[in-house]
């Protein structure tokens, strides 16, 4: 939606690549006016995932590897919870960026993410690396945000990225407009932070 794509109106989505041998990744990829190609998700993917088995953990890798020669970077946006899709992404990826909202369940979620990456690194993907932890939706006016950020910094200081994405309603407005935030509000602090994040990732 944030690039003007409504998944409900598409003839194909990544879900079809999990469920049909007659659909290729090239059939699903959508080119946008923003310099991004999108392999869109779909609500039906949740149903497909519910029926997945551990032996299918490499399916995502099989979907994305043929596309690698066409792109400098492939970014996978995964569900925040432990799932087959998240495990499949970790199995395929080379680097992991962990976005973390500063709320009271943050440490529990972060600990789980670290454990998931550690398990995969010991087995299916020994090359996987954690690129860093990114604080998102940060509202430093709240005590819980300050407390969580301090705790994470103390425990994982070497992984904290020098960028924080502030809380703002502007992200919702950009999504509704179908325009990436960095173009919707280029001078907004959130956009500035996202641009800095890109520099950190590309140069780090």
UniProtKB/TrEMBL annotation:
Pfam family, one: AAA_31
Domain named AAA: residues: 2-130
UniProt-listed InterPro entries: AAA_dom, DNA_Partitioning_ATPase, P-loop_NTPase
UniProt-listed CDD domains: ParAB_family
Domain of life of the native organism: Bacteria
Protein name: Chromosome partitioning protein ParA
């Amino acid at each position: 939606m944030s690039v003007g794509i409504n998944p409900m109106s598409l003839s194909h989505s990544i879900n079809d690549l999990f469920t049909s041998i007659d659909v290729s990744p090239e059939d699903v990829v959508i080119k946008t006016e923003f310099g991004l190609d999108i392999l869109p998700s779909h609500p039906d993917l949740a149903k497909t995932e519910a029926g997945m088995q551990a032996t299918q953990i490499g399916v995502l890798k099989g979907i994305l590897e043929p596309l690698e020669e066409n792109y400098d970077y492939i970014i996978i946006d995964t569900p925040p919870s432990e799932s087959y899709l998240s495990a499949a992404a970790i199995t395929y990826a080379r680097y992991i960026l962990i976005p973390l909202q500063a709320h009271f369940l943050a440490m529990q979620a972060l600990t789980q993410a670290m454990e998931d990456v550690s398990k995969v690194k010991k087995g299916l993907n020994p090359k996987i690396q954690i690129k860093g932890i990114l604080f998102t939706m940060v509202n430093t006016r709240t005590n819980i945000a300050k407390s969580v950020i301090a705790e994470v910094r103390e425990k994982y200081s070497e992984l904290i990225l020098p960028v924080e994405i502030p809380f703002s309603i502007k992200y919702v407005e950009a999504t509704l407009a179908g325009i990436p935030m960095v173009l919707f509000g280029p001078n907004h602090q959130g956009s500035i932070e996202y641009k800095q994040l890109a520099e950190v990732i590309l140069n780090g």
